[in-house]
Amino acid sequence: MEEGRLAISPEYEDIHSFVEAELIKRLGDTGKKLHTGRSRNDQVALDMRLYTRRQVCETDGLLRELLETVLAIMEEHTQTIMPGFTHLQKAQPVTLAHHLGAYFEMFKRDRLRLADIYERMNYCPLGSGALAGTTYPLDRDDTARFLGFYGPTQNSMDGVSDRDYLIEFLSACATIMMHLSRFSEEIIIWNSDEYRFVEIDDAYSTGSSIMPQKKNPDIAELVRGKTGRVYGALLSLLTTMKGIPLAYNKDMQEDKELSFDAMDTVKGCIALFRGMLATMKFNCERMRASASRGFTNATDAADYLVNHGVPFRDAHAIVGKIVLCCIEKGIAIEDMSLAGLKALSPVFEEDIYEAISMEACVNRRLTAGAPGKEAMERVIAAGKEYLGSHAVLQEKIV
């Protein structure tokens, strides 16, 4: 069929009838034995499980490659200071390694979900028949083993009508796309002229058809857009399955087209996103300058006062006044004179400037999961250990 030497004839009811007729033509009565102890129902259930299992493994492999790329960038940028945000407003200084580390954790959880789905779905429905098994002495355990399953499904009605594994996989795909979309949104923002944190390689961006100065983040925008497409596949299958009584019904044919599209979409998006990320250039100086302009060290100034005996609420109010004063003068906190700081609190001394430097603000944070250099080095080591101990999911068909 792939080579075009065998054409599917429309005279038959479906692909099953066509294959059986072709085998009878070639083998005679032997071909007539094809459906002994089998139904289209359990064959389709098996095929969809085999196909989905392979997609789970391929998706897992692509996620691992993405994690390797993210970790490599993290290792290179443990001291690249940038602003951390809440509500899209500058909050506290972090590092690029710490920021990307959040996505490392997201994609790691995505892999864990895929491994969990693989474990739950890896049971063989073949031998369930139409819905009630068969009178022939089939060895379902042997069949399951040859096809790389842990064993046969335990209920023949559930065997032919279960699509939970597919819903779970599409749900995992939707979550992967949500993570990619969030990351894409940040890259789109970072690529803007207002930020200029990153430069996207020409292979993953295009210019405007009319404005020569523009460089559009095409792949990031396409990934963000295709997220809704994958969401749609999940919602469609959930809606299809919600009213189907046991056992098999023709409605279940609707599980194919959208699922195939969603699986291809996710794999393509992961691969292209990884390529874009691997070739992206980061403007480290611009990131650091941005962190120093947004009063991201205000919390550390408050912490300085607290560590010198000032109650936190009072320290919060004092630093609030300092920020207002800086805004009026158009300067940063570290640009205020010591006399100016002392006018608001006599507790301030010369060492305040070291305490609120960007490097100090970041590297003093050493608790597990914090952006400090030592904490990030531990995280990166753990990431390498994880990648070394969690191989890509593999099918094991005998």
Number of domains: 3
Reported CATH architecture of the largest domain: Up-down Bundle
Number of strands: 4
Give the DSSP E fraction (strand runs of 2 or more residues).
under 5%
Residue-averaged pLDDT, rounded? 95
Uncertain segments? none
Side-by-side strand order of the widest sheet: 1-2
Fourth CATH level, the homologous superfamily of the largest domain? Fumarase/aspartase (Central domain)
Helix content: 55-70%
Q: What is the succession of H and E elements?
A: HHEEHHHHEHHEHHHHHHH
Shape, please?
elongated
The largest sheet is: 2 strands, antiparallel
Task: Describe the protein.
The protein is mainly α and 398 residues long. The chain folds into three domains: 1-34, no CATH class; 40-75 and 95-284, Fumarase C, Chain A, domain 2 (Up-down Bundle); 294-361, Ribonucleotide Reductase Protein R1, domain 1, CATH 1.10.40. Helix content is 59%, strand content 4%. The chain is built from 15 helices and four strands. The strands form two sheets. Strands 1-2 form a two-stranded antiparallel sheet. A two-stranded antiparallel ribbon has the order 3-4. Strand 1 and strand 2 form a beta hairpin. Helix 2 runs antiparallel to helix 3 and helix 2 (40-76) packs antiparallel against helix 15 (373-389). The chain is elongated, with a radius of gyration of 29 Å.
Topology:
Blueprint (H helix, E strand, L loop, with lengths): L14 H13 L12 H37 L4 E6 L2 E7 H26 L18 H7 L9 H6 L2 H28 L6 E2 L18 H24 L15 H23 L1 E2 L1 H10 L4 H10 L4 H18 L8 H7 L7 H4 L2 H6 L9 H17 L9
Antiparallel strand pairs: 1-2, 3-4
